[in-house]
Amino acid sequence: QVQLVESGGGLVQAGGSLRLSCAASGRYFSTIVMNWYRQAPGKERELVAGITSGGRTNYADSVKGRFTISRDNAKNTIYLQMNSLKPEDTAVYSCNAYLRVDGTIGDYWGRGTQVTVAS
Hints:
By secondary structure, the chain is mainly β. It has strands at about 5, 10-15, 20-25, 30-40, 45-50, 55-60, 65-70, 75-80, 90-100, 105-110, 115-119.
């Protein structure tokens, strides 16, 4: 069974930094793309950043220049380095991955980790 487990959330003052981690475990053949999403109370879930197996990245306009997504293939882990945090970054951040499992492509989600930015 494939699992995604996030860590690294917490409370930080505006202007501060946090680094989120998402570790994939279980039996799967390969990673196609892994993403970070976030959802703030009363708002739609939005894609924050994504990284392909080849290392190509994309970011939401609201986080460009402040957030960096990276991956450690040896550890099956992706990271989201978040700098210059703003109160509007407060949300539950969830890891998402498209993985090739048993010849099919599956869509997997972690449970999420809370990020709170105090003004």
